[in-house]
Amino acid sequence: MTDPQQPQPSEEEVRAALEEQLKQLTVDDMLIESAVSLVNLGGRKAGLAPGTEDERDLEQLRRAVEAVRALLPLLEQGKHADQLGPLRDALSRLQMAYAQGAREQPQPQEPPEAPKEQEKPEGPGPAQRSGKLWIPGQ
Length: 138
Description:
Blueprint: H1 11-24, H2 27-45, H3 58-76, H4 85-104, H5 126-130
């Protein structure tokens, strides 16, 4: 809650504060923040958090998992490499949730194929021609 007696910062002050934050920010910071955001969103799309069961979307979950997996090699080379354990654990949980969801999801039923009419060869087959096949009555 803001104090009504305290003056609001001017647009220039806000801009200066944002500029200072951007000076401190690194690509590694953005990569880890993106990966954490993707894991959190993936957890929602997996329906893992209480109250998010109706948000379940396996395709979105799959994409979140793939995106984090794509970021991991970059993160392993950056300044946050020693902090990736919890991220890997969360990614593993998302992968398990995806596998379980995919297993539970009903598979589309394909119409059965009509049996193909077998073509009958004209004349005797190779075994009959060789004389080695016993055919009753012949």
